[in-house]
Amino acid sequence: MNETTTKNLATYVEITAQMLNLNLKPEYLAGTISNFVAIATLAYLVTDFKLPEEIEAAPIFRP
Fold this sequence. Notes:
mainly alpha
């Protein structure tokens, strides 16, 4: 995760907290941003994984 993305996530957390009228205490801000960075990193791994074109979605999930 690069510095720009981290800054964007920090801005997102701050603005979203204001919009939702959340009283996010300053001592929790760094941890909240850190969690969003971790979530974004994991999401990138999932969305960046390329699947072959011939794969189709299963109509019924069977584990």
